[in-house]
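Re: Re: token formats

Sure, here are both.
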Amino acid sequence: MDARCRGGLNAMTTDPPLYEEYEVLERLQIRGHELDGLLNIGIIAPVAGDSSGHPRYCAETVDRLANPQQRIRLSDALWWDFDLNRPGYMPDGAPWARAVDLPFYPFDDQEQQSWARRYYKLKKACAPFRYPYPERLARYRSRMEDRATKAFERKHGIKRPPRTRGIDVSIRGARVQISRAKLRDLVWSKTMIRAGADLGITETALRHLCKRYMIPMPTRGHFNHKDPKKRPPKPTLTLLLRATRYGDD
């Protein structure tokens, strides 16, 4: 079981089923870049993450999307041409019909459709180069993940603890006492070397500490952006694994 679910389970006898990324690829019969495309438009979003930062997906949602009609819809969403109002892979004049009945087909709702329209337009205009606003994309994906996670937790009766558990450890003689939220804020406010120095530990020790307590870390080069608005946003904290919450390794 993963972090967000195990840490917050409340009087549940069984853990909600979750899929790892490779299982999602197998169930939906898609490739990694296609899953990334579906994440970018919000049709799929992880609902949990483990201590290594690997995403976990709701098995029930993935299984629902695994039927033939839904898989066609996913393909249509990845290839959707808003000018033609149909998938771009279809030859001109070829007959085409919706695989499933959705008001905003092939998207789930109007918000998702509106985002996909803007995203595809900019992506097409900048081809063959990358999407020009990665921070916007990161914010959207984070919002979709947060929404999916909250819906998953409500459905399965998973309750988040009122406050995140604090960190109180000794590393090579240095006592580190800090909340997970404050540690997350620290590592996203300055480089890992400087953040480690503030705590009296090395960068390597800080990275191990963040992994142990599931603190998301910025990628290398994050602070090379002189304009803070161009940096990827600070992510939300996931719930801790039960073993980690009680200090077991």
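Second one below.
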Amino acid sequence: MPHSDNIDSHQEPRFGGRLFHRTEHGNARWSRRSKVALAVVGALLAGSGAYAATNWTVGLAGGSSGEAQSATVSNLTITAVATPAASNVLYPGGNGDVVLTISNPNAFPVSVTAVNLPTSTTYAAGYTTSSLATAQTGCSSATSDVIWNYSTGVSGSSHSLTSTLVVAASGQPNNPLTVTLTNDASMTAAAPAACENTWFSMPSLTAVSASGGAATVTTSPATDAWTS
């Protein structure tokens, strides 16, 4: 029988060892495995193109910027408090502790380094209890002879604290900051007997030396003082 080069219509063609299938119309098609492999390769090529660097360099327009805003600055508030109780109490010719809180309404910490005092003839007012609600008879701001220690005859004298007090920003822990000022009140030897067993509202400070900005906050309650 003569040799025939024709392919049997029922035989699947092979090209280069790869198997094809005919469609019902007689056209050859890739096997399912080959089509899946090509789809995966195509996906990889497409992904590589998405992240490839290009030669199109993008610069920055002159004057490009953003907007920021600084905080407003508000004054501190210093308030007399009874807790913790003073360890050193006043007597004629002696010194005693002053307990107070410092409140900071600012959005940043404030560091206090010094206080400015009224004159040495500006006296504290006496009260019957630590609530400072009822005045002590005979022990007023005109007669008590209780003053800030180291105050002078000049109003506004500045006195440096031994340690900087850093009051936390508004709404943060340690604000208000409770501080005991050790032995920074003084009772002269001329204080009247009516000032025995009395609580005192110290004269208002004339100013403080303070600055705002990032700093390590002082833990409340704290102890500090000026010594000259």
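Residues 32-51 form the longest helix (20 residues). Residues 36-41 have pLDDT under 50 and may be disordered.
- S.
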